[in-house]
Amino acid sequence: MMKKILLTVLLIGAMKSVNAQSPQKDEVLDAMKRVADWQILHFRDDYTGRGAHHPLHWVNGAFYVGLAKYAEIAGTDDYYNWLKNIGTEHEWMLHKRKYHADDHAVGRMYFALYEKYGDKSMIEPTIEQFKYMTYHPATTSLDWPSPYHHDRWSWCDALFMSPPVWVKVYNETGDQRYLDFLMKEFKATTDFLFDEDESLYYRDQSYMDKEDNGTKIFWGRGNGWVFAGLAQILSDLDPKSEEYAYFLAIYKKMAARLLELQTEKGHWAMSLLGAEFYPTPETSGSSFFTYGLAWGVNNGILKGKKYEKAVIKAWNAMASYITEEGMLGYVQPIGAAPGQAFPDKTQLYGAGAFLSAGYEVYKLVGDK
């Protein structure tokens, strides 16, 4: 108990001292290595009380996304080899549910390894599964209570899990059907869940008519999933295409709104419009926002010092929540709405989000 109290005091002190001083490249890389190494060491830990997740589960898949980015700049193939062992052990298959977006997330890692090694067997099962889906698309409603609603992207998290993989498949095959599927489904979800007044996504239909302390409920990590997914989609589309313009418009709206909602401490609240009611930092959603904003700065999309300052402030905040052992603290547990986060609690997707953010921040400070 005393150790937890001391840890809390130390982290709260770190929260107060966060500033916009730009870190050095080696500091960013060191923070990434500490988080990556700790998370790999604790990869099979039970974070929920229900046992460790299957290696192809979305919780792990989100970690792989960030770890694959870190592997690019780590200066060793050890992290690539660790990821490759996951793919080889599971014969490069996606997880068990054919249509469920969460079970597509691991496909991002497969494509990252394919781009590194050029072995098409790493992505063939994913392409084959997506091919089936284009010929047999789900036609269920996006309404949350409807049967089989998870067969389509009826919740905002799905926009991180599956769409970036569809872009990868489209680029690899050149088959327009994959891009058409992506656009049809993404537009349907956005038309349904995106609030034009707030430039944010509802988590799903069930939150549209609810309020939390008098504010609309826009879940921090839920919008983090979307924003990070948009950055990845834009990274892989032709900047001159109509599809790129569509995603870019949403991305810019969200970026401008996120700049307004960043807290003085550098993070974003678990309920984006209710920071006063959720003062505790939350590092998974905030790291995804940091990644997405840094990507925009690095690619010349988000112009002006205000965005760069927001990125540096956010990164410094996230890095301050790493424990001495290398665990990223204040990661909200699995959920679908604002809740609680603790300095001594983590999850793999938090580490994945942090590593994605670090990848872009590393590039940002390296250009100075």
Automatic annotation (TrEMBL):
Signal peptide boundaries: 1-20
Lineage of source species: Bacteria, Pseudomonadati, Bacteroidota, Cytophagia, Cytophagales
Record protein name field: Glycoside hydrolase family 88 protein
Gene Ontology MF terms in the entry: hydrolase activity
Domain of life: Bacteria
Keywords of this entry: Hydrolase, Signal
A Pfam entry, by short name: Glyco_hydro_88
InterPro entries: 6-hairpin_glycosidase_sf, 6hp_glycosidase-like_sf, Glyco_hydro_88, PolySaccharide_Degr_Enz
Organism: Reichenbachiella ulvae
Hydrolase listed as a keyword: yes
